[in-house]
Specification:
Strand content: 15-25%
Distance between the termini: 34 Å
Strand order of the largest sheet: 1-2-4-3
Helix content: 40-55%
Number of strands: 6
Number of domains: 2
Amino acid sequence: MSPISIETIQSLLIDIRGERVLLDSDVARIYGVDTKRINEAVKNNPEKFPNGYIVHVTKLEWEDLKSKFSTSNRGGKVKLPAAFPERGLYMLATILKSAQATQATFAIIETFTKIRELSSTIKELSVVKDEGKQKSLMQQSGEIVADIFDEGLQTSDTETSVELNFAVLKFKHTVKRKK
């Protein structure tokens, strides 16, 4: 399997109950195992998955999620899927041992780190009044976004443009490449 990218992890993250999570079927795909192996790991190591380390998706939540997917086979074929927030994914990493699992764990850690950095930078940007500081934060945000979408960015030899539209903030950032 090809290396797991931050962009891949980012594209699989969904929001359930206010948390960014990965469904068990997506975790299995990332780790290169069957979904039942992920669920067996949880079942065989209950002490590693206390409240908050795994989200048991309800029927209503699953129906809502399925309506958002273009296909209904993203987990939960026979039973409702489990979902893993960041801390639950770290616990899975202590159980699943393979080169692919290690690489997947690195990508997951990097993804959540970048999301936290971007969120913090955008929050700070929304309250900073100093134009110089705003420019610096915009640059920092653009670099974080470029890291997250590394493979998906359209680039030219000299610059890359990223445009993001958040509910309260819209920015366009151009990264000029040094020759």
